[in-house]
Structure formats: C-alpha cells, structure tokens
Amino acid sequence: MQFQTIEPSYTSKEGCRLVWKGVDEDDTDVVILNKKELEDLVEIFKKNSTGEVELEDQSSFIRVNSDVTQFTLTNHPLLEAQTTDLQQQVLEYAKVPHEPQYVYIGSKEFYPSVWIRKDDKVQEKFSKTNQKQSLIEAILSSEPEKIKQDLSPTDLFRVFATRRSTRKFDKTKVEDWKVDKILSAADVAPTAGNFQGFQVFLIKNKNTKEALVEAANKQPYVNAPVVLVFCTDPSRVKLKFPPEILEKFSLQDATIAAAFSLLAASGVGLSTIWIGMFDEEKVRKILGTDLRPSSILCIGYPDKKKPPKSRRNLKELIKVIE
C-alpha cells in the first residue's frame, strides 16, 4: 500500500482525505482528517520537525518521523508514507482553500481507517427523532401504504454516490431478506412493453459457482456469497418487431434489471461486482439453459468499505445539443 495523494473532504472545506493505493485496482485506503488534525499536521511540517497528531477516536495517531510518517490506527493495519512526499503534498494543499467534493454522504461515514466512538444517548435520540425511511427502502418496501410522502430524494442519490465495486468479499452470509429485496428490485425494473424479457438465475450451489469462475476467465470473486446471472429472454417480448429488435429489447431489459439489483444491494449495505467478461456458451452449459447470459452480478459484504472514486466532470461527460 503506497501513499498516493491528498484530496478535499466530501463534507467540509477544512478537512482532507489522505489516499493510499495498492497493486489491485480495488485496493484503496483512506484516512479522513478533520480541521484540527490537518492543522496539527501542517504545523509539524512547517517546522520541519517530528511529532504526533492524535486523531478523533483518541487512540489512533499519526507519528511524523524524519524519514517515514506512520499512521497507527485502531483495528487497522499500519499505514506509512514517505515524510518528504507527504510533507510536500500537505503543505501545498494547505496553501489554498478547497471546496468539498460534491458527493452526498454523511460526515465520517467512509472512515475505514479510524474508529469513531458512538455516543449511545445521541444515537438513541437520533433513532427516535429521525423516523424517515431511506428512499431505497421505500422503493423496495413490501408495505407501500406505510411509506411517507415526504421522503428526501437525496437518500437515493446517496446510494448512487457511495456505491463501490468490490473484488474482495467477506465470508459473512447475506441475509435472506436482503436477497429478496435485491430480486424484488429486478422485478420492478422497467422493461420493453412490460414483458420482462429476461430471466435471473440465483446460484446457491458451490460447484456451480466454481464452474462460473472458470467460465468468467477465472475471476475468483465470481465465487461470491450471492451470485445472480441475468439472461435475455426475447421470447417473452410479445411485440411485433423483427427478431433482432426483440433481442435488443431483451438485452436492455436484462441490463436494467441487473442495474436495479446492483443499486438495491448497495441500499441494504452490501457491495457488488458486475461481471461482463465470460464465455457465453460455457455459462449456458453450466446453467442448463438456451438463454443468452448478459451479466453476472456478484454480491456480498465487502472485505472493507471503500470511499467513492472520483468521476469525470459533468462538463466533460455531457454534450449539449441546442
């Protein structure tokens, strides 16, 4: 794990995010510093001295040595950065004010490296006063008559913004009710003519999962706690169009359904990885079907939470035709 960069906080102008990267694309660690912690670190670096910065949980700390700066964190492996590199980036960062990155998440929510103590009384008060469901829970609720009309849509956008793919799943079993929610999300996805031109295979068999790993270019994370294979089924699309159009509709149906399931998984605290690289004929044979597989969705609890990745600026993404 190598220190990479310093970035603005998601929620505050004063704090920052220190980012480490590993060899694997998904291997990332982040330490979030609040205003005081960052100021203390800047003060040490300005003096070209050594010292310690106590972090918010009062048991984690940053030790600045002449050669290496060590981040000793509660319930987390030691993180290190070359002091000269970290000093240069931190002092450069502190020269100008920074706007928070525009991602809607709660303060300290993605704080994988530092454990924050919870005040039970505050938590109890919050649970009594905040009676709103999240929007994703409302969408997937089996009791829609109980849903309040004043739900904030930002809850749904929070799911969008904080979703992360993972290639390392914890072995914890996913609760059945969460699997039901994920499958229910696929069922309510929009489809061509509402004919639902797709089929979902829920893979529970261990040997079948291992066979799918081989069919998916030996990607080991395909053997996840929950594995869904989405297949096209154009025979369900009863519209008067040429076969190639019905196949296109069916592929779109299966893709949208998989996306709905992916977001539902994020909404109930799980992580996913979308698999698009696989041998279609091998997957067909494994499933015992003539249907064409469009994607494999692997779901489970992440080995560790990951902060959201940076994205393209909307001005680069959107082309306006006037």
Automatic annotation (TrEMBL):
The text of the family note is: Belongs to the nitroreductase family.
Look up keyword Lyase and say if it applies.
no
Q: Which GO MF term does the entry hold, naming one?
A: oxidoreductase activity
Keywords of this entry: Flavoprotein, FMN, Membrane, Oxidoreductase, Transmembrane, Transmembrane helix
- Which PANTHER family does the record associate with it? NAD(P)H NITROREDUCTASE YDGI-RELATED (PTHR43673), NITROREDUCTASE (PTHR43673:SF2)
Question: Which InterPro entries does the UniProt entry name for this protein?
Answer: Nitroreductase, Nitroreductase-like
Q: Which cofactor does it need?
A: FMN
Q: Which residues cross the membrane?
A: 256-277
Oxidoreductase keyword on record = yes
Q: Where is the Nitroreductase domain?
A: 161-219, 223-301
Q: Which organism is it from?
A: Nitrosopumilus zosterae
Q: What is this protein called?
A: Nitroreductase domain-containing protein
Enumerate the Gene3D superfamilies for this protein: NADH Oxidase
